[in-house]
């Protein structure tokens, strides 16, 4: 994304949705984080990957709570 423009790729477009995390260490196109706010994200320019950490929102249930997850494009990290 050379022009610094965000692009919708996948996931829910509805508020307050729980995530689907699948099995730890097994990647799947169906996996996606739940809705959240106050999360911290950063871009690794060397590997051209976006990372997302924590926040308040929805893990894999419909309970709004603090979520402690690191979400990366590479599950082996």
Structural notes for this entry:
The protein has 77 residues and is mostly beta strands. It has a domain at 36-71. Helix content is 0%, strand content 26%. The protein is built from no helices and 6 strands. It has a 3-stranded antiparallel sheet, with no helix packed on it. A hairpin with a 4-residue loop joins strand 2 (40-44) and strand 3. The mean pLDDT is 77.
Summarize the structure.
The protein is mostly beta strands and 77 residues long. 0% of the residues lie in helices and 26% in strands.
Alpha carbon gap, first and last residue: 23 Å
Rough outline: globular
Strand-pairing-aware structural class: mainly beta
Any low-confidence stretches, pLDDT <50, length ≥5?
A: none
Biggest sheet details: 3 strands, antiparallel
Name some characteristics of this structure.
3-stranded antiparallel β-sheet; 6 strands; mainly beta; globular
List the helices and strands and how they pair.
Elements lengths: L35 E2 L2 E5 L4 E5 L2 E3 L5 E3 L3 E2 L6
Antiparallel strand pairs: 1-4, 2-3, 3-6, 4-5
């Amino acid at each position: 994304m050379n022009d610094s423009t965000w692009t919708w790729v996948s996931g829910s477009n509805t508020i307050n949705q729980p995530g689907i995390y699948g099995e730890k260490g097994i990647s799947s196109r169906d996996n996606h984080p739940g809705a959240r706010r106050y999360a911290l994200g950063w871009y690794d320019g060397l590997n051209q990957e976006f990372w997302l950490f924590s926040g308040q929102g929805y893990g894999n249930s419909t309970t709004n709570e603090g979520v402690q997850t690191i979400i990366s494009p590479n599950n082996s990290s």
